[in-house]
Amino acid sequence: MRDSSIAALFGVFSSLLLLPVQADSSRPYINDKKAPDSRHDLEVIQKHLSEALPASRRATVCIDLGEGSGSGVVVSPDGLILTAAHVTGGVGKEFTVIFEDGRKVKAESLGLVASCDCAMARITEEGTWPFVEVDRDDTIQLGDWVYALGHSGGFDKERGVVVRLGRLVQVKDETVQSDCSLIGGDSGGPLFDLNGKLIGIHSRVDRSLQENLHVPMRAFTKNWDGMLKGEFIGEGPFAKKPEKGKGFLGIGTEAREEGGLSIEKVGRESPAEKAGLKPGDILLKFDGVELETKEQLQELLKEKAPDDRVALELLRKGKQETLTLRLGER
Amino acid sequence: MIAGLAPGSQTLESTYRTNGPAVKACFEPVREVLQASSAVIKSGRKEIAYGTVMSADGFIVTKASEIEDAADLSVIVAERTYKDPVVLGIDPAWDVALLKIQAEALVPVNLALDSPDPERGTWVVANGATSRTRRRPQVGIISATAREIAPAGGAVLGVTLEESDEQLRVSETHESSGAKEAGIEPGDIILAADGVEVTNRQALGEVIDKHRVGEMVHISLKRGDEKLELEVRLAGRVDLFGEEQSRNDQMSGRFSGRRSGFPRVIQHDIIANNAGMGGPLLDLDGRCLGMNIARANRCETFAIPAGDLQSLTDRLITQVTK
């Protein structure tokens, strides 16, 4: 199932590359002026904002992690989301995303780049989603007028998405700085150019109000395919790689003479309980391997990390069932 | 690459940043409106708030909680300093104070009364750092949808209560609370609120939740054998008891002490601090969209919309001239 959805996303990626350049996506002249110097210049900035904002707002989501929240932005009609690695925190995490109109849908994280705070996620429900265009040609320049969107401080339906205006004040390979003020909850949210093209993802702030840092799109495009495949790329401060051997299932078993393990206990709130395992179920296979002893199951679990998916084959009331679940952290 | 960069540098010179001098120069016509129609409110030598000029003869509105406890007030409008402004009235729900200075021929703000709420992305201009003679602008845009800001923690009387034998007994009244002002004392038994009989906290809470901060609740109580009828002003829980700083607060600099419990605000992204409230919020035409009322955090600043500002000012003026 997983493989087929990745293939589908690849399809979207290629078709996005082929999207014709829109007529109005030429570089606004105001970006090439040191500073606006007439009322007309200011009105041009205002006009760009009012034209681009509705679509940008529709595609900007709140990522509700239960404990705290971040933001993200949809970049394809089938629900591919770009956000920050420190928001998703890992590969294969499940969470809820909330659109500005209050619509809630389920999503899960794909890959990430731990060294520069890039991450992808996708909406797992069927549907066609509002999305924005990514600036794949890496057209940003120092001094460009930009605007930041996000669900600052968490989702607030009455308030809606919060927009801030600024300029790019520093441009580096894997980080750009703007004077759009960011705050907690904006992490993972989108930074746009005046045409409404996605140019960055909010990453972090420093104490000074000037220091609002974003990950530029080039860091995403460079790692696009790996992230789509669900890879954990690089090492760094923004996400911790799950450790092998820390995978947690949450069952107590006894070996049966006729093969398989009889489930005696299911831990409260454990991944096993959440997946619906019950005492009395017989565990026949773990990831396709037939089980005969408790030690065998322990050895298999040692090779797993938190958030890994495992396939279990069960015997329940005489009927064989297969289910997959995601391990927790021990 | 645009001109104006130091060679080899990838950092924009500060003059070209959104609130740099080169960009702000473009807002000179709006700055002139600030020069004429905004006020600087000082306590001694310290600037503690800005004000919005509402009439030619010297009615000025500002943020009440920033000036309430200040001594030795003076007001600057344009280049002139006015000593001994009089605080004529306060609207606690909006946290607005009405001041009067002895002046004539001031230029009041031109309130944008006929317009709908300004859309996200609309340029706005407010008071930035000031000198004795010159107002400076700070610029930004409208950021979010106009709305009510509920009081953080809800509205409260300012009493600690004990429930015993189906009775609601006051064990403590808190400093500067409406309860204390109204004369509620420890030992009083609360019988009814707004005419509704209350015998436990929940019932009282249900009555209070129908009100906003700053509104009055009618409390009937028993003190010994005596029955008393009192009007008690509600305070915001957070205003009365303070709040713990969140992580977002820690990155927000000096934000307003009173930043919630407003019937309606428009929101923008102009950077300010707690002493930067009370002045007008202007659009590119110099029309007044509202009055800045709270710096909420690092990225959110609130203003009272023009229509509400007009009606609450009229109400305050009527009260003092009656």
Describe the model.
The complex is a heterodimer of chains A (330) and B (322). With 330 residues, chain A is of the alpha+beta class. Chain A has two domains: 232 residues, Thrombin, subunit H; 83 residues, Pdz3 Domain, CATH 2.30.42. Chain A contains seven helices and 21 strands. In chain A, strands 1-2-3-6-5-4 form a six-stranded antiparallel barrel. Chain A has a six-stranded antiparallel beta barrel with strand order 7-8-9-12-11-10. In chain A, a hairpin with a 4-residue loop joins strand 8 and strand 9. Chain A is elongated and about 85 Å long. The two termini of chain A are 27 Å apart. The relative contact order of chain A is 0.14. By secondary structure, chain B is α+β, with helices and mostly antiparallel strands. Chain B folds into two domains: 205 residues, Thrombin, subunit H, CATH 2.40.10; 85 residues, Pdz3 Domain, CATH 2.30.42.10. Helix content of chain B is 17%, strand content 38%. Chain B is built from eight helices and 22 strands. In chain B, the strands form five sheets. Chain B has a seven-stranded antiparallel β-sheet. In chain B, strands 12, 13, 14, 15, 16 and 17 form a six-stranded antiparallel β-sheet that branches. In chain B, strand 20 and strand 21 form a beta hairpin. The radius of gyration of chain B is 22 Å and the shape is elongated. The interface between A and B is large, with 51 and 46 residues.
Short structural description:
Chain A is α+β, with helices and mostly antiparallel strands.
Q: Give the total of beta strands of chain B.
A: 22
- Write the element-wise H/E pattern of chain A from the N-terminal end onward: HHEEEHEEEEEEEEEHHEEEEHEEHEEE
Broad shape of chain A: elongated
The fold-level CATH name of the largest domain in chain B is Thrombin, subunit H
What is the total number of structural domains of chain A? 2
**Assigned CATH architecture of the largest domain in chain A:** Beta Barrel
> What is the overall number of helices of chain B?
8
Share of β-strand residues of chain A: 25-35%
Rg of chain B, rounded, reads 22 Å
Helical fraction of chain B equals 10-25%
Low-confidence stretches of chain B: 1-8
Radius of gyration of chain A: 23 Å
Helix content of chain A: 10-25%
Q: Spans of chain A of 5+ residues with little confidence (pLDDT < 50)?
A: 1-23
The major sheet of chain A is characterized as: 6 strands, antiparallel, barrel
